[in-house]
Every structure is written in C-alpha cells, then in structure tokens.
Amino acid sequence: MHLTLVPHPATPPARAEMALEAWIERWEDGRAELSFHLHAPTDSLVIPDKPRRGRADELWKSTCFEFFVRMPQGYREYNFSPSGAWAAYDFTGYRDGMTKAEVETPEIDVEDIGDKLLLDAIIDLPEGGRFGLAAVVEEVGGTKSYWALAHGGDQPDFHGEACFAADLPPVADA
Predict the structure, then answer these.
(1) Torsions phi, psi of 117, nearest 5?
(2) pLDDT tens-digit profile of 34-62?
C-alpha cells in the first residue's frame, strides 16, 4: 500500500520541494515492512552522524519516522531513527498508560542517496485495524516539520484520532 504524508500546516518544512512517501506491506507470518522515502537533499537534514542500534527513548526530538496502530487495548507506537535506533510503546488510551512494548527488535535499514533518505523497518505487526504513519523532519538551521497521513487540530499531534487515517492492508500473497 502506497501512502503520501503531508506536513502539518503550522509546521511547514523550510524546503518547499520536500516530500515524504511511505509503503506498508503485511506478510503472512505476522510481520510487516514499512518503507519511508524522504525526498530532500540529505545534507539539508539533521541526521544522526553516528549509527547506533538498539532501543532508545526520545527519538522524536530529531528526524524520526513513526508508525501508530490501533490494538484491542489501545494503540502501539513505533519510532525509527535514521541512526538505526528504535522505540516501541503501548498506550491504553490517548497519551495514557504508556509502557515500553514487549516486541522483537525491528530490522532497520537506512540508505542516504544524496537527494533522498530511505528507511525500511520490518516489525511484528500486532492485530489491529486503523493505523497512522508520521515523521518528524529536522532541517539544518533548526526548522522541524511534522508529517502524517492526516492531521487534526491547530498543532501536530500524532496520537490524535485524525492521525489514525488508514486501514491496515490485507496480507500479501506468498
């Protein structure tokens, strides 16, 4: 499933030609592949210069790609940094009851090709229905733009109901 993310009107990017596309594919084994393609000269972006792997908090403070999915008991949030670090949290309600999600370590691949930053993540996909994709994009010079499939409200809020804007695609045929 191909999707286009848009910046929140209150936080436009400094570079007008910036664009963000994403793909999600579900597999029969319960995993999913998420692909984010940020179209912008990568030398204009703040990207961690030292790759690090593993779980880390507060990845959203700089360039970060995110996935939110509804679950029977609330929702799950995944964060993926271009450094290779990741985070996953479960919430029982809107920004409520946050705990670190007990999940397998995602497989993350990042590629900087000069005019585009690519991030692919393979995750165990919980049973759910509605989902949202989002990103924080920090540019050299300090501008931060907040991207999502859809926005609600005067300020960006990826946890808001409007951001859960799509239904999970069907499982791909093997």
Answers:
(1) -110, 125
(2) 999 999 999 999 987 666 778 999 999 99
Does residue 174 lie in a domain region?
Answer: no
Residue 173 counted as domain residue: no
The answer to whether residue 38 sits within a structural domain is yes
pLDDT in tens, 110-151: 999 999 999 999 999 877 689 999 999 999 999 999 999 999
Alpha helices per DSSP H over the chain? none
Q: Using an 8 Å Cβ cutoff, are 68 and 132 in contact?
A: yes
Give the number of domains in the chain.
1
Short-list 31, 37, 13, 22, CA closest to 122: 31
CATH code assigned at 79: 2.60.40.1190
Residues in the chain: 174
CA distance 128 to 109: 25
3-class DSSP state of 122: strand
